[in-house]
Every structure is written in C-alpha cells, then in structure tokens.
Write a structure and sequence with these properties.
The complex is a heterotrimer of chains A (337), B (276) and C (331).
Chain A lengths: L1 H33 L4 H6 L5 H11 L5 H13 L19 H4 L4 H36 L4 H16 L2 H14 L16 H35 L2 H8 L4 H38 L5 H10 L3 H29 L2 H5 L3
Chain B lengths: L8 H18 L36 H37 L1 H15 L3 H12 L3 H28 L2 H8 L4 H37 L11 H9 L7 H28 L1 H4 L4
Helix pairs in contact in B: 1-2, 1-9, 2-3, 2-5, 2-7, 2-9, 3-5, 4-5, 5-7, 6-7, 7-8, 7-9, 8-9
Chain C lengths: L2 E14 L2 E14 L3 E5 L6 H8 L7 E10 L2 E2 L5 H11 E4 L13 H9 L6 H9 L5 H5 L8 H13 L5 E5 L7 H18 L2 E6 L2 H7 L2 E6 L2 E7 H6 L4 H8 L49 E3 L2 E3 L4 H7 L4 H4 L5
Parallel strand pairs in C: 3-8, 3-9, 6-7, 7-8
Antiparallel strand pairs in C: 1-2, 1-4, 4-5, 9-10, 10-12, 11-12
Helix pairs in contact in C: 3-4, 6-7
The chains are: A mainly alpha (337), B mainly alpha (276), C alpha/beta (331).
C-alpha cells in the first residue's frame, strides 16, 4: 500500500506502455514491408542510385530474416537514426522546401520542426482546458435549469461537430480580408520574435483547440453531474458543508478523474489535428512535414513520424494514468478495468 | 403511433435536420439543378446567382449540385465503415466479453495497440500505405472506430452476461449461438445503436479531415471535405466555395451528435441519468 | 421530559413521470431529548424520507407539501439556507447505509475529519475523534483512503464524522444493513454507547426489529407514510396494538433477517398518489371493518402508546401478548 503500491502501479503501467509501443513498432515495420515493391525502392524511391540501395541493404541487413531486420531497424531507431528523407520535389505540396531537407537526416528535420508543433499543441491544450473545464463545471452545477441543459447540449454537439478545418478556413477568410491584428501565416519562431510568433499562432491554436474545448466541457459537465449524484455529496450536505465547500473539496477533485483521462484523448487529437492547423496557417511544423511526406510517398519520413507520434501519445497516456492514480487512489488496487 | 422524442426539442431538431440533409443529398442531385461535372456551366468563380444558387468554381462548374452530391458522398462514406465496424464489433466484443480468457486478452491487447495511434494519424498512415482514395479511408475509419466499439460491446456484454437469466439459460444447456443471439444481442443492441451514431460523426470528421488534407476521396468524386479544400484555394476571391460545403458538413455532424445524445437518453438510460 | 424533536403532520411528495408520489402522508412523531428511538417499517413505508426530511436534505424532485419539523422549538423549514447549514453542522449527525460511499473516495480520512472540525490535518483532535469510535491504530486509519478500510472501519469513521461536532441529534439510516452480520452488533453498541455518554438523541431507522428491541428505548412503526404506532419499546414488542405492528412482529422470527419474511403479510404496501382517506393498512388488515375504508384513523393513546387504528381499544383488550421478540428484550 501507499507509496510502494504506487511505485508498483507505475512500473506496471510503464511496462504496459512499452509493450504497446513494441506492438506499434511491429505494426509499422510490417506495414512498410507490405507496401508493394522492394524495401529499397519504397524507402529511397525508384530512381535512387545503386550505391544508396547497397548502403541501405547493408544497414538493415535486408538479406537477413525479417525478425533480425526488425531488430536492427528498431535498434537504429532507438539510437536516433530514423533514416534519410527522400526528395521528389515535383510531387511536393505547398512550399515544402525540398532543397533544404534534401538528404537531411529525418531526426534533424523533426528536431527543427518540433518546437512549432509543441507550441501549437500546448497553446491549443491550454485554451481547451481554460475554456472547456469552467464551461463544463458551470453547465454541470446549473444543470437543474432546462435552458442550461438544452443549450449546453446544443453547444457541445456543435463544438464537437464543427470540423477544425471548416472553422480554420473561416478564420483564414475573415482574418485575411479584414485586418484584425492576428496574422494568417507568417510564422516566426518564438525565440526570434515572441510577439509576431503569438500573432501568427493564436489562430491555428484556436482552430486546433475547438474540439478539445467541446470535449472538455462535455466531459467535465457529465463528471460533475455524476459526482453530484454520489452519496458522499449528500453526506457532505448533511454535515452542513456549503455549496462552495462541496464544489471545492469534493466535486472538483472527483470530477477531475474523467477529465484527466480525456486530456490524453485530446492530446491524441492534437497530434493529428496539428497537421490540419499547420497546413491552413502555414506553420512549418511536424504534422505538415509528415503530411507532405505522405503526399510524396516518402515512407521513411512517414514511418518515423508515425512512430514519434505514437511514442508521444503513449507517453501522454502514461502520464494521464499516473496522474489519475494520484487523484483517484482506488485505481491502484482495482488495476485496469 | 408513439411520437419519438416527445418533449425533446433538440432530438427532434436533429431528426428534421438529418432527414432534410439526406433528402438533399439523395434526391437533390436528380432535380434540375444543373450538371455537376459540366465545365464552364457558368462564368468562373461567380458569386451565387439565379442560374447557380451556390456560385461557380474555378472551372465554371455550378456548385449547387456538387454540394448536394458531396452531402450524399459524405453520408455514404461515413455510414458504410460504421456499418462494417458495428457488425465486426458485435461479433468480436460479444465473444470476448462472453468467453473471456485468452481471446478476451488478445482482443484487449490489440485494441490497446490501435488505441495507441491518434485517430487522424492512424488514418494518415493507413492512407499512406493503401494509397489515397475510398478504399484507404474506409479501412482507416474501420480500424480507428473498431477498438472503442469493441470495448463498448464487450463491457455491455459483461454486464448482461452476469445477470441471472443468462446464467439460468446456460445452466439449462442453451447453445452458445442461442445465448449470444437470443439473450445477449437484444440487450446490447441499444448501446450499439448509440455508439454507432456517435461513430458516424467521428467517421465524418475523419473522412472530411483526410479529404481536406487531399488524401481522402480523389477527383472526380468529391465529398464535402474535399470541396472545402478545393474552395480554400480561392478563399479570398470566392469564399462561398469553401464555406457552403463547410456549413453543410458542420450541420450534418451537429445533427448526428444531437441524435446520438437523444438516443443515449432513450436507449441507454444507465449512461444518461447521472443525476437522479 | 423535554421534547427535542417534534414532527407534526409532515407530508412529502416526490415528482415522478407518472405524477406525484406521496412518501410521507401526515406522519407525526415526538422525540424527547436523550431518547433512543427505533423507527421500523418495510421499504417504501417512508422511513428514509423521514430521515432526510429532518435534515432538509431531500433530493430536488421531492417537495415538502405540509406539516412541520420542529427542533428545539424552532421550525426546520423556517431556517434560511445558512442557518440550515449551521444547524446541520452543529446539531445533526447523519449516519448512512453504505459507509464507503458516504466518504469522499479521493480524500484521506484525516482530511475529511479536519474539514469538519475546522482544524489542520495534523491536529491531535483528529486522532482523539477516531479513538472515540473505537478504532485501533488511529494513525494508520487517519492516513487511509476510504476504499482501504473495511466496511466496519468505514462505518466507524462515518460515525466519527457524524459526532465530531457534538450533535444533539444523531440520525442513523440503516447503519448496519451493508455490513457483515458479525460486526453489526459492534457498530450498534458503539452507536448506542455514544448517546449514553453525551446525552444525544438517537433515531435509528431500520428493518431490523431485533436490534431495535435490543437497544432502543422507544419504537415508532411506520406504514404508508405514517407513524402508526409509537411508544416504549418493551410495551410495543410485548403487546403490539396496531394490527400491522402485530403482523410485522409475527413475520420476524427472532434473530433472522426480517426483509424476506415480511411478505408473509398478504398484499402489498400502498402507493399513495395523494392524501389517503382511509386507513392505509385497511386493504391488508385482517381486522378491517367498514370505517377503516372510509375514514383515516386518528392517533390515540391506548395502553401507554400512540396508535392510529379505529379498533385500537378493542385490539388492546384482545391482542395476545407477543413473545417472539419481547423475549429478547433485555433492557
């Protein structure tokens, strides 16, 4: 029990996360090998010079049995070697600067682009939390009113229903036609010019946050309603606690449990959705890069991007699980349901 | 006849919206609204006018029939994979929940692995492998929505299977098929219908997202998502090109979500009434 | 003796989809300070509603239709919300059926007590409160989460929370029905030892006639949203006057579970949609006469207890002494 129990729980969750990631890596490895054509042609493109093909064959031991190839590939990946990006500029979309990326190690390109995506995800998550959770609490606490019930249901259906790219397109239109202080495109790294950076990032962040906001609002509302119906809330009322005390001491803490779980869901959405926001607002991030790679059939980048995203997602889920167990100590004993 | 959703304004609104959208999508294109494929039907990038109520695109095609077709394609592309997912999930989830043991464990592990992919990303990789197009997105949607649906079916099955009458009929020697079809299926149907409704809205989001990114449906087929993408190129000169299909898409997903809520209140009262 | 709690003609209804459902139909009960009263009846007799009404903690879909609850001379319904809160905090102590779910699952025991006592979680008074309810190893219990406690330990914690501020009225609603039978008596003994020490009044709402017979000074029998017989426990258990009380006692063979056996009384308890204009027990009563079906009986004092029965005098003279439970009645 106590801290030891928590430690054991954490180790179990960690092991399970690693297991999941191994599954993901096998899936990705298999998928790439299922693509028609030889591995070298898939990874390097059909026009690659023979020397490059030979290098790749040697690196991954392509003449060895698949399990050995997988091990080599995985070890290289874990060592930070994600391969080399392919470049066929005539098929690229947008202003994907192929000249710069040409033959650059994928990991360097990821590192260069990660800050924009991470900033975008953090801003979107912050907006979703700061707007969605208070809205949900308010809706949950005032659910006695029919009007509040109806309108919160309609708003959440709308918020979860409006695709981010539709909202983003609307933003692009409104903010390109009218000068409202926020820029569409024109990304500048945060370290260079924070103000210009924020001007450029607010719109993509709002676009990306809308789904999470609705998700948080809805989850929080349902959670508050569920907690309010719990016997310990009635017990607190019977002990003469005031509504404020009850909300602060009991409702928020207990309602936080499903909200933490949903944060992980939202994070997953952010990882995928970032591609849309980056594309719409020309933010040179990770998602856009992987998207362009899909268009170009640059499987080396796609495979690396998928793995990195899966690692990020599983890591976030693991954190959510660990946080969950702190808020709701019952989790540890119950294990996973 | 019993009036469905009595006293539930929002659910009725959802039903009316959905019926209107389906009529627009499935009957609309056969009305005299013009040929969606005819290039230079009108001037290029014209705003809405009597001959082309939703304006024209960069090739002078009239948008109205294109949007109507887009509605139909969006619904078909969302509903087909959900149907397949539902059937697969019912079979897998019931067996996993009822049989338990290694099969259940295997299903749970596989679901975990699929869950490890953020949905849009899973869509991206599947489309990357299978190539853009209807086949790719259908497969992607099925794989994305299957794990959650299986979990719902499995959990519901576990609850129902623990009830006395199931145990009683097992003891009395009913066959596995009989148990599953006669005793379990009718009882999990409500939860499946509710989940399937929400899944339709999820698959609309995925399909339109992928199509917007240019890796979903490919021309000449156009869903609402790819129409928005086409239109977004001419956003400043001709905003209606992107906004009209965008509004219809948002309406469709909104209506499906509302309907899902309403169905959950009716069919899955355990879930719905936290506050009693 | 001075009266601490007067419940007068209290009427409470629940809003349901098929119209109002009357849970309390003019129930009255007078409790003197320091008494221990067992309130018994079948499920649906209005017991729980009565318990909640005293603290005004009925759910939102319940409405107080008529009648009054007077605590120490003041009407509970006249209190403002903040007066009501301090009344609940300082004068009442509720003990619920399921102790584990009555405790906040995310909070260690010591913090739950600290909130009530308005002290820091390191305050020694927390340990002394836990000690008071007979918990051993109080340090460990204080640091535990509710789910880490056994049912009996959790109920002791709930009792500690209820008595922490020295309430004058303890209301226990089925406090032992979710516990193992082996620890029921321990909890009941604790529950009844406390009023003896502090002079608090205890209302025990329960199915369990045996524990009422064993521990309570007085008994109130509820039926159809009414208190139909109320008086000293030894009198009622040895010689019930109301036909329902008699049937209830006969259906309860000594120490065994009561719940299942009550069906031995033919028919079902009434479901009231409005004020009952007859004796609510009339449809099931084997002593029923014409007047029972047309007129509500008024409570009258017969043989040292209050009875609501048209034939109370007759019953008191003919009813045989009921030995089944009375035999167990030691106090």
């Amino acid at each position: 029990m106590g801290y030891l129990g928590y430690l054991r729980f954490a180790m179990e969750r960690l092991a399970s996360a690693i297991l999941t990631l191994l599954g993901v890596s096998i899936l990705v490895f298999t998928a790439i090998h299922l693509i028609p054509g030889s591995y070298e042609a898939v990874m390097l493109g059909p026009q690659a010079p023979e020397a490059a093909r030979e290098r790749l064959r040697e690196k991954y031991g392509l003449d060895d049995p698949l399990p050995q190839q997988y091990m080599r590939w995985l070890l290289a990946f874990l060592g930070g070697d994600m391969g080399i990006a392919l470049c066929r500029s005539q098929q690229s979309i947008g202003q994907q600067a192929c000249e710069n990326a040409d033959q650059a190690p994928i990991i360097a390109e990821f590192a260069r682009r990660a800050p924009a995506t991470i900033q975008l995800a953090f801003m979107a998550a912050a907006i979703a939390n700061l707007v969605g959770i208070p809205l949900g609490i308010l809706a949950g606490l005032s659910a006695g009113s029919r009007t509040v019930r109806g309108s919160s249901r309609a708003i959440s259906a709308l918020g979860m229903g409006i695709p981010s790219f539709v909202l983003g397109t609307l933003f692009v239109y409104v903010f390109s036609v009218h000068d409202l202080g926020l820029t569409v495109g024109g990304y500048v790294p945060l370290s260079e010019d924070p103000e210009a950076n924020l001007r450029a990032m607010v719109l993509p962040a709002i676009t990306l946050s809308i789904f999470g906001t609705a998700l948080f609002a809805r989850t929080t509302r349902d959670a508050v309603l569920t907690v309010l119906a719990e016997p310990f809330i009635m017990a607190a009322v019977a002990r003469g606690e005031s509504p404020r005390q009850i909300v602060r001491r009991h409702v928020l803490r207990n309602a936080a449990i499903p909200v933490v779980t949903v944060s992980a869901v939202n994070m997953g959405y952010l990882l995928g959705g970032a591609a849309i926001a980056e594309l719409l607002f020309s933010v040179p991030g990770f998602g856009w890069y992987v998207l362009a790679a899909i268009h170009k059939r640059d499987y080396a980048v796609v495979q690396a991007g998928v793995l990195v995203a899966a690692v990020a997602f599983v890591a976030v889920n693991l954190l959510a699980d660990l946080a969950y167990a702190i808020i709701d100590p019952r989790t540890i004993r119950r294990g996973r349901g | 006849m019993k009036v469905p959703f009595r006293g539930d304004f929002l659910s009725r609104l959802a039903v009316v919206l959905l019926i209107s959208l389906l009529l627009l999508g499935f009957v609309g294109p056969s009305l005299p609204v013009g040929d969606p494929a005819a290039i230079a039907f009108g001037p290029r990038l014209s705003p809405p006018a009597p001959g082309w109520l939703m304006g024209t695109d960069n090739l002078g095609r009239t948008m109205l029939p294109r949007v109507l077709q887009g509605i139909r394609i969006t619904f078909v592309l969302a509903a087909t994979p959900v149907l397949i997912t539902s059937v697969l999930a019912v079979v897998i989830g019931m067996l996993a929940g009822y049989l338990g043991g290694w099969f259940d464990e295997l299903v749970a592990r596989l679901a975990d692995v699929l869950f490890a992919f953020p949905s849009l990303l899973l869509g991206l990789i599947l489309v990357a492998i299978m190539g853009p197009g209807v086949r790719g997105i259908t497969a992607a949607i099925i794989l994305i929505t299957l794990p959650l649906m299986v979990r719902v079916v499995r959990a519901t099955t576990l609850t129902i299977a623990s009830r006395d009458y199931v145990a009683a009929s097992r003891v009395s020697g009913a066959s596995l098929a009989r148990l599953l079809l006669v005793h379990l299926l009718p009882n999990i149907a409500g939860a499946v219908v509710v989940q399937a409704t929400f899944t339709i809205s999820v698959s609309m989001l995925i399909e339109s997202g992928l199509s917007f990114l240019g890796i979903g449906v490919q021309p000449p087929v156009a869903s609402l998502g790819s129409l928005v993408q086409n239109g977004s190129v001419y956003l400043v000169q001709a905003p209606w090109l992107a906004l009209a299909p965008g509004v219809f898409l948002a309406l469709a997903i909104f209506a499906v979500n509302l309907l899902g809520d309403g169905l959950r209140d009716r069919l899955d009262p355990l879930e719905a009434h936290g506050l009693k | 003796m001075r009266s601490l709690l007067q419940i007068e003609q209290i009427t409470v209804e629940y809003a349901t989809e098929s119209g109002p459902l009357r849970a309390l139909d003019g129930a009255s009960l007078n409790v003197a300070a320091g008494e221990t009263v067992g309130i018994v009846g079948e499920s649906g007799s209005g017991k729980s509603t009565l318990a909640l009404t005293i603290g005004r903690i009925l759910p939102a879909y319940a409405s107080h239709v008529a009648g009054d609850v007077i605590f120490d001379g003041y009407s509970v319904f006249a209190h403002s919300t903040s007066e009501m809160r301090s009344f609940r905090r300082d004068e009442l102590g509720f003990i619920f059926q399921n102790p584990v779910s009555a405790l906040d699952p995310t909070m260690r025991v010591k913090y739950q007590l600290a909130h009530i006592l308005d002290v820091k979680s390191s305050d020694p008074s927390i340990m002394s409160q836990l000690d008071r309810v007979g918990l051993k190893d109080v340090e460990r219990v204080a640091n535990r989460f509710p789910h880490e406690l056994s049912g009996g330990m959790a109920q002791r914690v709930v009792i500690a929370l209820a008595i922490a501020r020295g309430p004058r009225l303890l209301i226990a609603d089925e406090p032992t029905s979710s516990l193992d039978s082996t620890i029921r008596d321990q909890i009941l003994e604790l529950l009844f030892a406390l009023p003896a020490q502090t002079g608090a009044t205890l209302l025990l709402f329960t199915h369990d006639l045996r524990s009422v017979a064993k521990y309570c000074d007085r008994v109130a029998v509820m039926y159809g949203g009414n208190v139909i017989e109320h008086g000293p426990a030894n009198k009622i258990f040895s010689r019930p006057v109301h036909p329902y009380t008699e049937a209830l006692l006969k259906a309860a063979p000594g120490a065994e579970e009561i719940g299942g056996k009550i069906e031995a009384i033919p028919g079902r308890p009434p479901i009231l949609r409005g004020r009952s204009e007859q004796c609510p027990f009339a449809p099931r009563c084997r002593w029923v006469v014409d007047i029972c079906r047309h007129q509500r009986p008024v409570a009258q004092t017969v043989d040292g207890r209050l009875v609501s029965c048209h034939r109370a005098e007759e019953m008191a003279s003919v009813a045989p002494a009921c030995q089944i439970i009375g035999a167990n009645h030691a106090s």
